[in-house]
Amino acid sequence: MLRYAVIFFIIAVVAAIFGFGGIAAGAASIAKILFYIFVVLFLITILFGASIFKNKG
Predict the structure, then answer these.
(1) Average pLDDT, the chain
(2) Is residue 5 over pLDDT 60?
(3) How far apart are CA 34 and CA 54, in angstroms?
(4) 54 secondary structure, DSSP code
(5) Nearest to 8 by CA among 31, 25, 26, 39
(6) C-beta of residue 28 within 8 angstroms of C-beta of residue 12
(7) Of 34, 14, 32, 33, which Cα lies nearest the Cα of 24?
(8) Which tens digits make up the pLDDT trace of 13-45?
(9) Domain span including residue 18
(10) SS3 at position 6
(11) pTM to 2 decimal places
(12) What's 19's DSSP letter?
């Protein structure tokens, strides 16, 4: 998921360089949403992973 966020960010930068403001804004908003989803899922994985290893050991 982080890979897709980076890809959309690169698309947004390239589109902004060439003057496509609408496409750049759309790609940047998609990249931001994907990044926040990644962060939330990463934190959930860290919390549940720590609780699973805490109960086993």
Answers:
(1) 88
(2) yes
(3) 30
(4) H
(5) 31
(6) yes
(7) 14
(8) 999 999 999 999 999 999 999 999 999 999 999
(9) 2-56
(10) helix
(11) 0.75
(12) T
